[in-house]
Amino acid sequence: MKKTIVIAATLFLGCAKNSDHHAIIVPDVIQANNTRGNIAGVIYLYDEDGIRMGDNGYVTVSIDNSTVSTTTDASGKFQLDSIPAGTYDITYSRNGFGSGKIMGLYHAATNHATTMITKNESMAMNSTLAISNLVVQAFEPAVQQLGVNGFHIVPVFDNPSGKEKWVHLFFSDNSGVDASNFQAETKIKVSGSAAQLNNYNLTTNWFEGLGFQKGQTIYVKAYGDSFLADAYTNPLTNQTVFPSLSTKPSNTVSFVIPIK
């Protein structure tokens, strides 16, 4: 009797091993396979004057905190393959163009569905503007007599094309002001001419609205920037990142907010 049972068991195992039938997949494995899908989108590249480039390729697109990445093709399209369901932060970058972020993208991946990023992303070439000087001049006495106090801000730079360029101004009550150490910032479009005194006007009320006080010394530094509003907050440091700034900022200039 024992011998018969052993033979039967052996025959059963042999048939199972050589069977053409697939193993039964348990439900949780089926669910895992069904919750993977692609993430796809488009990133367009622009030059310093805001003109879209013909070749939008070679942008590296990566899922944060992972080894998953891909690159865009010449049309700017990209696809991250077989990504599990979840919520992701995505970083994209290319040499000479800074970087960008897609934050909190929900990827359902139900039945292998592709998540399409409906908003086309844009990335501008880093500014090459070299600001040679930053002129800060108080409003003319005639304007001050009307009860309006403030300053003309004039970034000076070489500009053979004559096209107005974007410049980012950073303000602080600290002389070490720069693009990562500031209390207020604003973006302006200027020609670079030292004679253009009415380029941009900041009133005393504007500074007070940002928390500065009358009689306080303010420091300002200027950087060339792209036309895009491409600043974002780094989720790890909680700092604002300005990815398209020039590496050749202006000198730091100080001025005192009028008491009257």
Short key terms for the protein model shown above:
260 residues, mainly beta, Immunoglobulin-like, 2 domains, four-stranded antiparallel β-sheet, disordered N terminus
Short description, anyone?
This protein is mainly β.
Describe the structure.
- This protein is mostly beta strands and 260 residues long.
- It has 2 domains: 27-124, Immunoglobulin-like, CATH 2.60.40; 131-256, Immunoglobulin-like, CATH 2.60.40.
- The chain has helices at residues 2-18, 27-34, 141-144, 204-209; strands at 36-46, 60-63, 69-71, 77-84, 86-93, 99-107, 115-116, 121-124, 131-138, 150-157, 165-172, 184-190, 201-203, 217-225, 232-233, 240-241, 253-256.
- Strands 1, 4, 7 and 8 form a 4-stranded mixed beta sheet that branches. Strands 3-2-5-6 form a 4-stranded antiparallel beta sheet, with no helix packed on it.
- The termini are far apart.
- Residues 1-27 have low confidence and may be disordered.
Q: Which structural class do the helices and strands define?
A: mainly beta
Provide the residue-averaged pLDDT. 85
Number of domains: 2
Global shape: elongated
Through-space gap between termini:
111 Å
Beta content: 35-45%
Query: Which CATH class of the largest domain?
Result: Mainly Beta
* Weakly predicted, low-confidence segments: 1-27
Q: What radius of gyration results from the CA coordinates?
A: 29 Å
Question: How much helix is in the residues?
Answer: 10-25%
Order of SSEs, N→C?
Answer: HHEEEEEEEEEHEEEEHEEEE
Question: How does the major sheet shape up?
Answer: 4 strands, mixed
Examine the secondary-structure arrangement and name the CATH architecture of the largest domain: Sandwich
Our count of helices gives 4
